[in-house]
Protein backbone atom coordinates (compact mmCIF):
# COMPACT_ATOMS: atom_id res chain seq x y z
CA UNK A 1 0.00 0.00 0.00
CA UNK A 2 1.57 3.32 -1.07
CA UNK A 3 1.92 6.14 1.39
CA UNK A 4 -0.01 9.31 0.64
CA UNK A 5 2.62 12.00 0.18
CA UNK A 6 2.37 14.87 2.65
CA UNK A 7 2.06 18.45 1.53
CA UNK A 8 5.35 19.85 0.21
CA UNK A 9 6.98 22.01 2.88
CA UNK A 10 7.51 25.72 2.29
CA UNK A 11 11.18 26.56 2.80
CA UNK A 12 11.88 29.86 4.56
CA UNK A 13 15.30 31.38 5.03
CA UNK A 14 15.91 33.79 7.89
CA UNK A 15 19.10 35.62 8.84
CA UNK A 16 20.11 34.31 12.26
CA UNK A 17 22.01 31.27 10.95
CA UNK A 18 24.35 30.46 8.11
CA UNK A 19 22.56 29.47 4.93
CA UNK A 20 23.73 25.85 5.19
CA UNK A 21 22.54 25.60 8.78
CA UNK A 22 19.13 27.02 7.86
CA UNK A 23 18.76 24.49 5.04
CA UNK A 24 19.81 21.63 7.32
CA UNK A 25 17.46 22.70 10.13
CA UNK A 26 14.44 23.09 7.86
CA UNK A 27 14.93 19.70 6.20
CA UNK A 28 15.12 18.05 9.64
CA UNK A 29 12.04 19.93 10.81
CA UNK A 30 10.13 18.95 7.65
CA UNK A 31 10.99 15.30 8.31
CA UNK A 32 9.85 15.54 11.95
CA UNK A 33 6.64 17.28 10.83
CA UNK A 34 5.78 14.32 8.59
CA UNK A 35 6.46 15.86 5.20
CA UNK A 36 8.87 13.06 4.33
CA UNK A 37 9.24 9.34 5.00
CA UNK A 38 12.18 6.95 4.47
CA UNK A 39 12.95 6.58 0.79
CA UNK A 40 11.31 9.83 -0.31
CA UNK A 41 13.27 11.77 -2.92
CA UNK A 42 14.41 15.09 -1.51
CA UNK A 43 15.99 16.43 -4.69
CA UNK A 44 19.26 17.05 -6.45
CA UNK A 45 21.57 19.87 -5.44
CA UNK A 46 20.16 21.92 -8.31
CA UNK A 47 16.56 21.13 -7.30
CA UNK A 48 17.15 22.16 -3.69
CA UNK A 49 19.15 25.23 -4.63
CA UNK A 50 16.18 26.37 -6.71
CA UNK A 51 13.65 25.53 -3.99
CA UNK A 52 15.58 27.39 -1.31
CA UNK A 53 16.66 30.20 -3.60
CA UNK A 54 20.35 29.79 -2.76
CA UNK A 55 23.52 28.57 -4.48
CA UNK A 56 24.55 24.91 -4.60
CA UNK A 57 27.41 25.37 -2.11
CA UNK A 58 25.29 25.70 1.07
CA UNK A 59 23.00 22.94 -0.21
CA UNK A 60 26.01 20.64 -0.61
CA UNK A 61 27.24 21.56 2.87
CA UNK A 62 23.82 20.95 4.45
CA UNK A 63 23.39 17.62 2.67
CA UNK A 64 26.85 16.53 3.78
CA UNK A 65 25.95 17.12 7.41
CA UNK A 66 22.57 15.42 7.01
CA UNK A 67 24.28 12.43 5.43
CA UNK A 68 26.74 12.23 8.36
CA UNK A 69 23.77 12.23 10.74
CA UNK A 70 22.12 9.40 8.82
CA UNK A 71 19.18 11.58 7.72
CA UNK A 72 19.74 11.36 3.95
CA UNK A 73 21.37 9.03 1.45
CA UNK A 74 23.12 10.70 -1.46
CA UNK A 75 23.70 9.19 -4.89
CA UNK A 76 25.79 10.74 -7.62
CA UNK A 77 25.49 10.50 -11.37
CA UNK A 78 22.43 10.29 -13.58
CA UNK A 79 19.26 10.06 -11.53
CA UNK A 80 21.22 10.89 -8.40
CA UNK A 81 20.32 13.19 -5.56
CA UNK A 82 19.33 13.03 -1.91
CA UNK A 83 16.73 10.68 -0.48
CA UNK A 84 15.47 10.40 3.07
CA UNK A 85 17.42 7.52 4.63
CA UNK A 86 16.05 4.37 6.20
CA UNK A 87 16.21 4.38 9.99
CA UNK A 88 19.40 3.09 11.62
CA UNK A 89 19.23 3.18 15.46
CA UNK A 90 22.87 2.05 15.64
CA UNK A 91 23.98 5.50 14.44
CA UNK A 92 22.01 7.18 17.21
CA UNK A 93 23.05 4.73 19.91
CA UNK A 94 26.77 5.01 19.24
CA UNK A 95 26.61 8.81 19.11
CA UNK A 96 24.62 8.85 22.36
CA UNK A 97 27.15 6.55 24.03
CA UNK A 98 29.97 8.92 23.10
CA UNK A 99 28.04 11.92 24.41
CA UNK A 100 27.35 10.09 27.68
CA UNK A 101 31.08 9.58 28.11
CA UNK A 102 31.82 13.19 27.23
CA UNK A 103 29.44 14.56 29.87
CA UNK A 104 31.08 12.33 32.48
CA UNK A 105 28.14 10.06 33.28
CA UNK A 106 29.02 7.95 36.30
CA UNK A 107 28.85 4.17 36.53
CA UNK A 108 26.00 4.53 39.02
CA UNK A 109 24.00 6.59 36.52
CA UNK A 110 24.63 4.03 33.78
CA UNK A 111 23.44 1.19 36.01
CA UNK A 112 20.30 3.14 36.95
CA UNK A 113 19.52 3.70 33.27
CA UNK A 114 20.31 0.10 32.41
CA UNK A 115 18.00 -1.18 35.12
CA UNK A 116 15.11 0.99 33.95
CA UNK A 117 15.49 0.09 30.28
CA UNK A 118 16.58 -3.55 30.42
CA UNK A 119 13.84 -4.62 32.84
CA UNK A 120 11.22 -3.01 30.58
CA UNK A 121 12.80 -4.57 27.48
CA UNK A 122 12.75 -8.06 29.04
CA UNK A 123 9.03 -7.83 29.81
CA UNK A 124 8.20 -6.59 26.33
CA UNK A 125 10.35 -9.30 24.72
CA UNK A 126 8.41 -11.98 26.61
CA UNK A 127 5.22 -10.55 25.14
CA UNK A 128 6.34 -9.75 21.59
CA UNK A 129 9.20 -12.10 20.63
CA UNK A 130 8.64 -14.00 17.39
CA UNK A 131 9.94 -17.46 16.55
CA UNK A 132 12.80 -15.77 14.66
CA UNK A 133 13.62 -13.67 17.73
CA UNK A 134 13.74 -16.77 19.94
CA UNK A 135 16.07 -18.46 17.46
CA UNK A 136 18.33 -15.39 17.40
CA UNK A 137 18.45 -15.39 21.20
CA UNK A 138 19.41 -19.07 21.24
CA UNK A 139 22.22 -18.44 18.75
CA UNK A 140 23.45 -15.42 20.73
CA UNK A 141 23.48 -17.43 23.95
CA UNK A 142 25.36 -20.33 22.30
CA UNK A 143 27.93 -17.87 20.95
CA UNK A 144 28.44 -16.37 24.40
CA UNK A 145 28.70 -19.78 26.09
CA UNK A 146 31.39 -20.86 23.62
CA UNK A 147 33.48 -17.84 24.65
CA UNK A 148 33.44 -18.39 28.42
CA UNK A 149 37.06 -18.15 29.52
CA UNK A 150 37.85 -15.24 27.21
CA UNK A 151 37.38 -11.72 28.49
CA UNK A 152 36.81 -9.21 25.71
CA UNK A 153 35.16 -11.72 23.38
CA UNK A 154 32.77 -13.05 26.02
CA UNK A 155 31.77 -9.57 27.15
CA UNK A 156 31.00 -8.62 23.56
CA UNK A 157 28.96 -11.79 23.07
CA UNK A 158 27.06 -11.20 26.31
CA UNK A 159 26.23 -7.69 25.18
CA UNK A 160 25.10 -9.08 21.82
CA UNK A 161 22.62 -11.27 23.70
CA UNK A 162 21.32 -8.20 25.53
CA UNK A 163 20.88 -6.39 22.22
CA UNK A 164 19.02 -9.41 20.83
CA UNK A 165 16.61 -9.24 23.76
CA UNK A 166 16.09 -5.54 23.08
CA UNK A 167 15.41 -6.30 19.41
CA UNK A 168 12.87 -8.93 20.46
CA UNK A 169 10.97 -6.25 22.39
CA UNK A 170 10.03 -4.67 19.02
CA UNK A 171 10.33 -1.22 20.61
CA UNK A 172 12.71 0.78 18.43
CA UNK A 173 13.33 3.49 21.00
CA UNK A 174 14.19 1.10 23.82
CA UNK A 175 16.35 -0.95 21.45
CA UNK A 176 18.39 2.13 20.52
CA UNK A 177 18.75 3.14 24.16
CA UNK A 178 19.86 -0.38 25.08
CA UNK A 179 22.47 -0.32 22.33
CA UNK A 180 23.82 2.97 23.67
CA UNK A 181 24.11 1.54 27.19
CA UNK A 182 25.85 -1.56 25.82
CA UNK A 183 28.43 0.64 24.07
CA UNK A 184 29.30 2.22 27.42
CA UNK A 185 29.02 -0.89 29.61
CA UNK A 186 31.23 -3.08 27.44
CA UNK A 187 34.36 -1.11 28.27
CA UNK A 188 33.45 -0.78 31.94
CA UNK A 189 32.64 -4.44 32.55
CA UNK A 190 35.34 -6.18 30.50
CA UNK A 191 38.15 -5.88 33.10
CA UNK A 192 35.98 -7.62 35.72
CA UNK A 193 34.63 -10.42 33.52
CA UNK A 194 36.36 -13.46 34.99
CA UNK A 195 35.49 -17.02 33.97
CA UNK A 196 33.43 -17.42 37.16
CA UNK A 197 31.53 -14.23 36.41
CA UNK A 198 30.96 -15.35 32.82
CA UNK A 199 29.46 -18.66 33.91
CA UNK A 200 27.05 -16.81 36.20
CA UNK A 201 26.08 -14.49 33.35
CA UNK A 202 25.35 -17.46 31.08
CA UNK A 203 23.14 -19.02 33.76
CA UNK A 204 21.09 -15.82 34.10
CA UNK A 205 20.88 -15.30 30.33
CA UNK A 206 19.51 -18.82 30.00
CA UNK A 207 16.90 -18.15 32.69
CA UNK A 208 15.85 -15.03 30.80
CA UNK A 209 15.62 -16.91 27.51
CA UNK A 210 13.44 -19.56 29.16
CA UNK A 211 11.13 -16.87 30.57
CA UNK A 212 10.83 -15.20 27.16
CA UNK A 213 10.17 -18.52 25.47
CA UNK A 214 7.45 -19.24 28.06
CA UNK A 215 5.86 -15.80 27.43
CA UNK A 216 6.25 -15.07 31.16
CA UNK A 217 6.87 -11.33 31.27
CA UNK A 218 6.86 -11.16 35.08
CA UNK A 219 9.55 -13.86 35.29
CA UNK A 220 11.59 -12.15 32.56
CA UNK A 221 11.57 -8.84 34.43
CA UNK A 222 12.44 -10.57 37.69
CA UNK A 223 15.40 -12.42 36.17
CA UNK A 224 16.80 -9.21 34.72
CA UNK A 225 16.18 -7.27 37.92
CA UNK A 226 18.06 -9.81 40.02
CA UNK A 227 20.82 -10.09 37.44
CA UNK A 228 21.39 -6.34 37.29
CA UNK A 229 21.40 -5.96 41.05
CA UNK A 230 24.14 -8.61 41.29
CA UNK A 231 26.04 -7.06 38.38
CA UNK A 232 25.91 -3.60 39.90
CA UNK A 233 27.02 -4.78 43.33
CA UNK A 234 29.95 -6.82 42.01
CA UNK A 235 31.13 -4.16 39.56
CA UNK A 236 31.04 -1.29 42.04
CA UNK A 237 32.77 -3.39 44.73
CA UNK A 238 35.52 -4.40 42.29
CA UNK A 239 35.92 -0.84 41.06
CA UNK A 240 36.21 0.55 44.58
CA UNK A 241 38.68 -2.15 45.58
CA UNK A 242 40.84 -1.40 42.55
CA UNK A 243 40.76 2.32 43.31
CA UNK A 244 41.73 1.71 46.95
CA UNK A 245 44.61 -0.56 45.93
CA UNK A 246 45.85 2.08 43.49
CA UNK A 247 46.05 4.73 46.23
CA UNK A 248 48.30 2.46 48.34
CA UNK A 249 50.95 2.11 45.64
From TrEMBL:
Look up and give the organism this protein is from: Pandoraea aquatica
Q: Which GO terms describe its molecular function?
A: DNA binding; DNA-binding transcription factor activity
Residue limits of the HTH gntR-type domain?
17-87
By its UniProt entry, which CDD domains does this protein fall under? WHTH_GntR (cd07377)
Pfam families registered for this protein in UniProt = FCD, GntR
Name of the protein this chain belongs to: Transcriptional regulator
The record's annotation in SUPFAM superfamilies points to:
GntR ligand-binding domain-like, Winged helix' DNA-binding domain
Keywords of the record, alphabetical order, are: DNA-binding, Transcription, Transcription regulation
Amino acid sequence: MSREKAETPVWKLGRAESTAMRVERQIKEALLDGHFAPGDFLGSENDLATQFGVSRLPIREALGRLQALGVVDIRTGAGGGARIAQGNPALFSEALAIQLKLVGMSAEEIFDAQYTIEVAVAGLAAQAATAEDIEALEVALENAQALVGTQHEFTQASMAFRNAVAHASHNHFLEAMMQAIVHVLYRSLTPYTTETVAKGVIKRHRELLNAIRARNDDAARQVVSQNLNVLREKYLAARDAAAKAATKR
